[in-house]
Automatic annotation (TrEMBL):
It comes from Arcicella aurantiaca. It is an enzyme of class 6 (ligase). One of its GO terms (molecular function) is glutamine synthetase activity. Catalyzes the ATP-dependent biosynthesis of glutamine from glutamate and ammonia. This is Glutamine synthetase. Belongs to the glutamine synthetase family. Residues 4-89 form the GS beta-grasp domain. Keywords: ATP-binding, Cytoplasm, Ligase, Nucleotide-binding. Homooctamer and homotetramer. It is found in: Cytoplasm. GO terms for biological process: glutamine biosynthetic process. It holds the Pfam family Gln-synt_N.
Length: 341
């Protein structure tokens, strides 16, 4: 009888920002298939998802991939992303994935996940001295060298594990500030795009544990300084955008976002007012704009889409690094569906 380790991963009920939780389930003769993953329960009273007197919540497996780190130890191991259900089997109020209306996977999403790596001992970004600041930002973006790229050994390990797990990571790069990095994930289907970002975040958190580093997803961890914040830019398309062939379709879809600025900001991550200031390649939080190749706009029309004859995608630059990709995708889809194209 063979054994397998299944790490069930879910999002807790903390507000305004949910955190990852996980626990291990041992299975006998496990097939490795999602349909053979059982629904499992957990104590919701410990995750702010249920009262103590009725604490059972349920984990519904929705995505599975290989766990490359644990598999190195010899036992077949898997990462299982789950939706949270209440004790009656209904989607829990904290379950953002269940709000996505993309049953036919017409929407494709590519998320650009930025983050800072912080030293546990100094509680500062990697590359920052104990007092003051390193050299001003600029030299760190897509950089190389020990004086510029801090924590590369961690992000290289993360990239390798993501690829071994089968996640569709399409790239990584050092970002504008010291100790700041980015990875990009793409999927055809909003739910899978969210699944893969969350699993990639989980792997990053776990890798950092053994390096004495923690991942800071706050959108403006360095406060009111001239250092860039962190975003999770959402690149998205549907059939209309991928086949448009004209500027008018892009204008109509972009303009559909203007009446819903408040609704988008509500799910684009906590403290976004600290990041969306109109500076550092952002639009102000209470304004809306779009433009070709404009990184200071709310929504950027990539030049590649124009060059392909107005066929491609859009980039919403407002979601921040701590946002829930499920909720971001759900809101974008809802807004795009109001466009009369």
């Amino acid at each position: 009888m063979s054994k397998a380790k299944l790490e069930y991963i879910w999002l807790d009920g903390y507000k305004p920002t949910q955190s990852l939780r996980s626990k291990t389930k041992i299975e006998n003769n496990f097939s490795g298939k999602l349909e053979d993953c059982d629904i499992w329960s957990f104590d919701g009273s410990s995750t702010q998802q249920a009262p103590g007197g009725s604490s059972d919540c349920q984990l519904k497996p929705v995505y599975i991939c290989k766990d490359p780190e644990r598999s190195l130890l010899g036992t077949p191991s898997y990462l299982v992303m789950c939706e949270v259900l209440d004790s009656d089997g209904n989607p829990h109020e904290s379950n953002g994935r269940a709000t996505i209306e993309d049953d036919d996977n017409d929407f494709w999403f590519g998320f650009e996940q930025e983050y800072f790596l912080y030293d546990l001992k100094t509680n500062l970004p990697l590359g920052f001295p104990a007092n003051g600041y390193p050299a001003p930002q600029g030299q760190y973006y897509c950089s190389v060298g020990a004086k510029n790229a801090y924590g590369r050994h961690i992000i290289e390990e993360h990239l390798e594990y993501c690829l071994q797990a089968g996640l569709n990571v399409e790239g990584i790069n050092a970002e504008v500030a010291a100790g700041q990095w980015e990875f990009q994930c793409f999927a055809k289907g909003a739910k899978q795009a969210g699944d893969e970002i969350w699993v990639a975040r989980y792997l990053l958190e776990r890798i950092c544990e053994k390096h004495g580093v923690w991942v800071n997803y706050h959108c403006k961890p360095l406060g009111d300084t001239d250092w860039n914040g962190s975003g999770m830019h959402a690149n998205f398309s549907n059939t209309a955008l991928r086949t448009a062939g004209n500027k008018e379709t892009y204008d109509i879809i972009c303009q559909a976002f203007e009446p819903f600025v408040k609704e988008h900001i509500e799910v684009y991550g906590a403290d976004n007012h600290l990041r969306l200031t109109g500076k550092h390649e952002t639009q102000s939080i209470d304004q809306f704009s779009y433009g070709v190749s404009d990184r200071g706009a709310s929504i950027r029309i990539p030049i590649a889409a124009v060059q392909k004859g107005w066929k491609g995608w859009l980039e919403d630059r407002r979601p921040n690094s701590a946002a829930d990709p499920y909720k971001v995708a759900a809101r974008i889809i809802k807004t795009v569906k109001t466009a009369k194209v």
